[in-house]
Amino acid sequence: MGEDMNERLTCQGCGVELQTEDPSQIGYIPEKALQRTPTVCQRCFRIKHYNEAASVTMDQGAFLRILSGIGETKALVVHIVDVFDFEGSLIGGLHRFVGANPVLIAVNKLDLLPASLNWNRVKNWVQKQAKEQGLKPVDVIPISAKRGRGFDEMVRALDRYRGGQDIYIVGATNTGKSTLINQLIRRYSDLDLELTVSRYPGTTLDTIHIPLVEGQSIIDTPGIVYPYRLTEIVDAKTVNALLPEKPIKPIVYQLDPEQTLFFGGLARMDFVQGDHQSFTCYVSNAIKIHRTKLERADEVYEKHRGGLLSPPSAEEAAKLEPFLKHTFRIPRGARHDISISGLGWIQVNGMDGALIELHAPKSVRVTLRPSLLG
């Protein structure tokens, strides 16, 4: 850029420093676009207006350096997690980065779950699960950033815990972080500003400082990309199917032992042993579930993946990682969930136990947990 651009000019969409020299690098903006308001890089412009992913991302080391800097400040840290992928979006080692700063957990996307959901139950469940993962939040606030629900409580909590300090927003990709911040901008700032909101990883590439009216800032940080989430290892078309836009419709299956459920061609659950019982599937409405006999499951997968078993497409199915089998002995006396990071979860409703084998691409995190919805 010219001499008058020596000061650091940053993209108002993703926070990266702008440059006009190299279109293949992050922060590129055509010189003629510098006068445009808001000033955004070409990448953010194309994401916003054409829903187009770009190939440039920030490396993981840069993410960690940004997060580590939080511990050198005095601030409130808001950790946004996705209720639809809790295990995949929780930053278990967050306290190592933020030091003694208080952490508030915002549990997002409550609008995707049944309307009869008890939000206090979700709050208590998250507090317990976070504690088991080594987090000690000062509070847990269930919200829907997209719908603006829960924000009165969120604003009260921010005022209560931040002590006049800055607010850092941290979280994994696709948790709704930018949507949350846009809601906070409307309540805390008089700026005519909106962050780029996208389903593509790495949309925010550097910290973005949004000044508050009393002198502090809301500081957006890059989303952490966790490779064990299904949404990070499939193409954009499949990501769109995995991430629900509307409330999901739980589907209940009554199964006998030696029956199998396929979730498109992305995962497979085998009910190996146990009494006849029901299983409730919480996945995006765009994911087709197919039931078959366990003895035919391998044949069905080889013959129909990319067709009857879709998504993914046949082309992507051929490139998908091989499945890894996870074996779970469901304990008696309580309902449990089998969570597949990036896909959703299966609630095992039987109270007498069961033997389940869950198959998913080998890098995807699969966990057994106490039931979220009871």
From TrEMBL:
Pfam families with a match to the protein in the record: MMR_HSR1, YqeH-like_C
GO MF term (any one): GTP binding
SUPFAM superfamilies: P-loop containing nucleoside triphosphate hydrolases
Residue ranges of every copy of the CP-type G domain listed in the record: 64-227
Protein name, entry field: Ribosome biogenesis GTPase YqeH
Phylogenetic placement of the source organism: Bacteria, Bacillati, Bacillota, Bacilli, Bacillales
